[in-house]
Design a protein that fits this description.
This protein has five helices and two strands; from the N terminus they run H-H-H-H-E-E-H. By secondary structure, the chain is mainly alpha-helical. Strand 1 and strand 2 form a beta hairpin.
């Protein structure tokens, strides 16, 4: 019999739900940046829709996502660190009213 039984198993796998939450925050950073730089003034304009379609959506999986994002909203939307991509958090902090 395991010493702590189910409680030990719970602690072993407790990090899994948090990975989903951090993925949500990671994606929210990118979404907030796109909204702030492209959609905030007039999200339903033809120019906004055309930019999203031609610079972001039409390539499908043929172009790296980070390259699509940089083309859409600018090079300052991301930075690289240890082989990973770090989003610019300014827009999401403003959206969440974090100072």
């Amino acid at each position: 019999m395991l010493r702590d039984g189910p409680r030990c198993a719970l602690l072993r796998f407790m990090h899994i739900p948090f990975a989903g939450y951090y993925s949500y925050l990671y994606a929210k950073c990118f979404a907030a940046t796109i909204w702030k730089k492209l959609c905030e003034e007039d999200p339903l304009s033809l120019d906004t829709g055309t930019a999203i379609r031609t610079k972001f959506l039409q390539h499908g999986g043929a172009v790296e996502p980070v390259d699509l994002l940089k083309d859409l909203v600018g090079d300052d939307s991301v930075r690289y660190h240890d082989g990973g991509v770090i989003p610019n958090i300014r827009a999401v902090c403003e959206e969440m009213e974090l100072k």
